[in-house]
Specification:
The protein is built from ten helices and eleven strands. The protein is of the alpha+beta class. The strands form three sheets. Strands 6, 7, 8, 9 and 10 form a five-stranded antiparallel β-sheet that branches. A four-stranded antiparallel β-sheet has the order 1-2-4-3. α3 crosses α5 and α7 packs across α10. The longest helix has 35 residues.
């Protein structure tokens, strides 16, 4: 193939290719013949229409479609032949070709930059591990107590703090109902984390069957934009009151608290809980250390990155930001200039990190095996609690791109975990 490559910079190239006229002409004839197999023309049998007649009818369409396909195919074949990795589709610059002559095509293309990662063995990365306090251990024990609590029905007194209540409710904001404004049989722990702050406290003193108006000032940062920053009025009916009876913390409680861990005594329970917390804190510390290492690798290896990757990352960041703000209508709209400026620097840094980590994964021959991917996707399905079939869900994720994103995240984490064993680690136990 006749190919000419012009380097513009590390991320941009111009490509010139020549499409032989014979190849183009043969493809046009094949296109016309294929159309002729199913075309219907009065006076002719199906599949027996003269080519000359078909050329008059679909000749221009055939030339246009064939040329478009051939340009795309030839450019991608040329890049593959030269070992060039495009970051996006080529942009056509010029097409020249007289009737009966070869066709010359030129295009610009953004490419992944070629680079070598500098020696990273001397990079110093802090590994900060949070100390485990007695309070943390007590919180886990309290969780076990709550899980083992007996729920006793209450009939002869009003609601008190820490009671479990069942209510029906209807809410209005600006005189209108809103999403989630009505519910029946809602279970709440009074004094716990209610679905709106200060809502449950106003239930104290109610008796079973009583109705009450409850007014709540919803905070500005509340995740539901239709009521954020507004005053909401609820009509509440108390259906039942229950009291939690927590078990006493002793050896007997410890022995029955967790059938999998099989605590032998309260002392053993506290020791194993502390050990588990220390393992989690070390995991958290390594996770943070990997993020720091990724940033340091990017700082040590400044590289240019393709604009197309940066722009796609900016769009993703903008959409995530809009979702967090509750702006679902603007999800597919292009970023504003202000939004682009806000996210560009972070987007560039993130793409630099990803390209460097991918390069190191290749250098170190790190891959994600199919059984590793299966374990991860099974875990995700279990976390979703959907009960979906793993094979079907994996096939769906493969089609919509989710599987690729999971694999990329796993490859990033596995590579950084490997690199932590090759750099200087400064471990430190820090106060919570």
């Amino acid at each position: 193939m006749n190919i000419q490559i012009e380097d513009i910079d590390s991320c941009n190239k111009n490509v010139r290719v020549v499409i032989p006229h014979r190849k183009y002409a043969d493809r046009v004839i094949s296109y016309i013949d294929k159309v002729g197999q199913n075309a219907k023309v009065p006076g002719f049998r199906k599949g027996h229409i003269p080519r000359s007649m078909l050329e008059k009818r679909v000749g221009q369409e055939a030339k246009r479609e064939v040329l478009t396909q051939l340009i795309s195919e030839t450019l991608m074949e040329a890049l593959d032949e030269k070992g060039i990795r495009p970051a996006g589709l080529p942009s056509l610059l010029e097409v020249n070709g007289e009737e009966g002559a070869d066709i010359e095509v030129s295009a610009s293309v953004e490419v992944f930059p070629e680079f070598t990662v500098k020696d990273y063995s001397k990079i110093e990365t802090p590994l900060k591990i949070k100390s485990t306090s007695d309070e943390e251990v007590d919180k886990v024990i309290e969780f076990y107590r709550t899980r083992a609590a007996k729920i006793l029905p209450i009939q002869n007194r009003p609601v008190l703090d820490q009671d479990v209540v069942v209510i029906d409710f209807k809410g209005l904001a600006d005189g209108k109902p809103f999403e989630g404004s009505e519910g029946k049989g809602k279970v709440l722990l009074v004094g716990g984390e209610g679905f709106l702050e200060d809502f449950d406290k106003q239930l104290i003193g109610m008796i079973i069957g009583e109705s009450k108006s409850v007014s709540v000032d919803v905070p500005e940062n509340y995740p539901k934009p239709d009521i954020a920053g507004k005053k909401v009025l609820f009509e509440v009916v108390l259906k039942s009151i229950q009291k939690r009876e927590l078990p006493e913390v002793n050896d007997e409680f410890a022995k029955t608290a967790d059938s999998e861990k099989n605590f032998e005594s309260l002392v053993d329970m506290k020791a194993k809980i502390r050990q588990d917390l220390e393992v989690e804190h070390r995991k958290d510390g390594r996770k943070e250390a990997k993020q720091i290492l990724a940033r340091k690798l990017a700082e040590e290896n400044p590289i240019n990155v393709p604009d197309i990757l940066v722009n796609n990352q900016i769009k993703h960041m903008v959409n995530q930001g809009r979702k967090q703000e509750g702006n679902t209508t603007g999800e597919n709209q292009s970023p504003t200039q202000e939004e682009e400026e806000k996210f560009r620097e972070n987007a560039v840094k993130l793409i630099q990190e990803e390209l460097i980590i991918l390069k190191l994964a290749s250098d170190l021959k790190i891959t994600i095996e199919e059984d590793e991917l299966d374990r991860e996707t099974i875990m995700f399905i279990q976390m979703l609690g959907s009960g979906a079939d793993h094979t079907k869900m994996k096939r769906q994720w493969s089609q919509d791109g989710t599987l690729d994103r999971i694999r990329e995240r796993m490859l990033r984490d596995k590579t950084l975990e490997n690199l932590l064993g090759k750099v200087k680690i400064k471990e430190e136990i820090v106060d919570r």
